[in-house]
Amino acid sequence: MPRLVQLPPALVPDDVAPPARGKPQKFMVVVRESSIDGQGAFAGEAIAQRRKIGEIRGEAISIQEAQQRARGQARIMIIAVSERRAIDATHSLDPLRFANHSCRPNASLRVRQGRVEFYAMRDVAPGEEITVNYGETHHQGRLRCRCGAPGCVGLL
Question: Taking the CA of residue 29 as centre, how many other CA atoms within 13 Å lie in the half-sphere pointing to its CB?
Fold first, then answer.
């Protein structure tokens, strides 16, 4: 199962231009302050259920390097894509790297052929925050979940 963890807030514009053909984003995604945590990724337009929203790109690193980079960090953005490889999106410009965790997400994170892709689990309205279930994280159940969703499990 892929693991996704947030980075600290960064200087990111409040809006992102619509995706160009051949770019990793299939729909417009806007980065702004989130009520869940820090910054979040928000739908800049309506997204239909089961549609690919976009991807996160980053530096390909080993799992060992990923563990070293995560050590001592409260917020990181590293996604395991296999038993041996991970993607570090620390310096990525892809707005989906700001997708926050929710125990009742509206999007899923899938790893396909080493690519980190996001798909809408249901229709997502313009302005709605795009959220995913992080699954296992480097917090190992020690970080309080702030998603506020009904049935929240309480910890990441």
Answer: 29
pTM, two decimals, is: 0.79
CA angle centred on 60, ends 66 and 105, rounded to 5°:
75
Q: What is the pLDDT along the chain (156 residues), one digit of tens a residue?
A: 444 444 333 333 333 334 444 567 889 999 999 999 889 999 999 999 999 999 999 999 999 999 898 887 767 788 889 889 999 998 899 999 999 999 999 999 999 988 899 999 999 999 999 999 987 665 555 678 888 888 888 777
Contact 131, 147 (CB under 8 A): yes
Residue 111 is inside which H or E element, if any? strand 107-112
